[in-house]
Design goal:
It is built from 20 helices and nine strands. The protein is α+β, with helices and mostly antiparallel strands. The chain folds into three domains: 129 residues, lambda repressor-like DNA-binding domains (434 Repressor (Amino-terminal Domain)), CATH 1.10.260.40; 127 residues, Arc Repressor Mutant, subunit A, CATH 1.10.10; 148 residues, no CATH class. Strand 6 and strand 7 form a beta hairpin.
């Protein structure tokens, strides 16, 4: 939020209101003393109008402050937190318009009590410092909220992808290849594509792609990627072009988040890529046939990936977009865990989309241990890891889980694979769908007896299961025990209070 005319008006209005209140004047009092109307003064205090110099002189004389003090951007101690917040990167970058409000409306809520505002801002700054919360964390949280509000389905992007496929006459019975997409990018948008340069630079070998603008745009793709991954990178680049998304990141992995527009456009381009690789009606046809199976069949599931020529992650994420839309499976989640062979006890959650009300694994703090019963972690603990992401060389596992605290059941599908750009690292992706009567009606293998119901929790430290009932426990339940102690203490205090109130 730059110090433009709008922000100058806002800060002037805040200072005017502060000076007025410090002197015990109402708007009516100030109007009578200056000869200015109440409505005009109210508009100034709301930041909607900036008075002319002669009116500022009238106000300054009435409030017994200097002209310079009125117009200066310097503020007193009580308004410092407001000024800091006005100048902050958070106010500059946070997409308030997504929620139908303006930054000024939020800041006005803090003006009436600047002492409490100062304490609140200091609290947020302290939390941000301790937990390393940056603006990009808020921006990605807004994107997740947007996905949740829309059931992660965006019809305009689906229609754009369908039109693109039809215009380029993609064969509906054959997977879209990286070669096809590269040809379109070069022919239609004048790109030059290089799949050699990144692998020659050790500092950049972990990136999947880098884009450079220019009369002839350049896209550098990591040559070690699988054909399916290259296809996604090229499809995303076509999304930027076809959807005319100009504000965008230059790298496949975020190096720096500069605006919410970048975050949103990156999401749109990725959604578009998934939609052209996995056309929604084709996915629906495949899933309906799969749901008719009487038993869980991992071979049939992996065959779908092969027919679309996509990785498990691409396919699972696409299902989070389509299953709520087509089958009303509204409660589902996507998780991705990474695990290094050199860190046998460490499992990192690297991607999440939660469309449920459940506390499924999230980016926790304080070094807690994720529940080892999750199939996403169990698959990574297996000493035999797949050596490739090729679907025909993978193993998909299914699991029925029961959330201990919430008493809800989910059907979870997990696939683990090695990461081609990260040596000695394996990754698992999981898709969980809540088992409801509707799910059982549509999915015939929902209650496959070969898939026992496994009780799970968020972390070992928060789990009430006794150690003898859980052989997978990796840490004591000290957080659960602490909360239980506090709960019991509260019950005893309540009982004690009832006894003494009767005396």
């Amino acid at each position: 939020m730059e110090l433009n005319t709008e922000n100058l008006s806002f800060l002037f209005g805040v200072k005017l209101k502060t000076f007025r209140q410090e002197r015990g004047f109402s708007l009516k009092d100030l109007a009578e003393r200056t000869g200015l109307s109440i409505s005009y003064l109210s508009e100034i205090e709301k930041g909607k109008k900036y008075p002319k110099p002669e009116k500022i002189v009238q106000l300054a004389e009435t409030l017994d402050v200097s002209f310079d003090e009125m117009v200066s951007m310097k503020v007193g101690e009580t308004l410092n937190p407001l000024k800091d917040l006005l100048d902050s990167e958070f106010i500059q970058e946070f997409p308030f318009h997504m929620f139908g409000i303006q930054p000024k409306e939020l800041l006005h809520l803090m003006v009436d009590n600047p002492d409490k505002a100062r304490a609140l801002v200091k609290t947020f700054l302290e939390i941000s410092r301790v937990y390393d919360v940056r603006v990009e964390h808020f921006l990605f949280a807004v994107l997740r909220s947007l996905q949740q509000l829309n059931g992660n389905y965006f019809d305009e992007l689906e229609q754009a992808a369908l039109t693109f496929r039809q215009h380029n006459e993609f064969n509906p019975k054959a997977p879209v290849t990286a070669e096809q997409l590269q040809h379109l990018l070069e022919r239609s948008y004048g790109y030059q594509v290089d799949d050699q340069k990144l692998t020659s630079l050790p500092e950049l070998e972990g990136l999947r792609s880098v884009w450079f603008a220019g009369p002839k745009p350049s896209l550098l793709i990591n040559g070690r990627l699988l054909d399916s991954q290259k296809a996604f990178v090229l499809g995303r680049e076509l999304g930027y072009c076809y959807l005319k998304l100009t504000e965008r990141p230059a790298t496949s992995s975020w190096v720096k988040v500069e605006s919410f527009e970048q975050v949103l456009n990156a999401f749109k381009a990725s959604y578009f890529a998934g939609a052209i690789l996995m056309e929604q009606n084709q996915v629906r046809t495949e899933m309906e046939a799969f749901f008719k199976g009487k038993k869980w069949d991992s071979t049939r599931f992996l065959a779908m990936l092969q027919r679309f020529n996509v990785t498990p992650e691409m396919f699972f994420y696409r299902l989070t977009e389509l299953l709520p839309q087509f089958y009303n499976f509204q409660e589902l989640y996507f998780l991705r865990f990474n695990h290094r062979h050199t860190e046998p006890h460490t499992f990192r959650l690297t991607k999440i989309l939660n469309l449920t009300e459940l506390p499924i694994p999230h980016d926790k703090g304080f070094g807690e241990s994720y529940c080892r019963r999750w199939s996403g972690i169990q698959s990574l603990r297996n000493p035999i890891h797949p050596a490739s992401e090729q679907p025909e060389q993978l193993t998909a596992v299914a699991q029925r889980v029961h959330f201990l605290d919430k008493k809800q059941d989910f059907f979870v599908i997990t696939v683990a694979r090695s990461l081609v750009l990260s040596p000695n690292t394996v990754s698992s992706v999981s898709l969980g769908i809540r088992i409801t009567d509707q799910f059982r009606e549509l999915v015939r293998f929902a209650d496959d007896p070969k898939l026992p119901l496994t009780t799970v929790n968020l972390t070992c430290e928060r789990c009430p299961l006794p150690s003898e009932d859980c052989h997978d426990r990796s840490a004591p339940a000290f957080i659960y025990q602490k909360f239980e102690q506090l709960r019991r203490r509260g019950e005893v205090l309540e009982q004690l209070g009832r006894e003494y109130r009767k005396k």
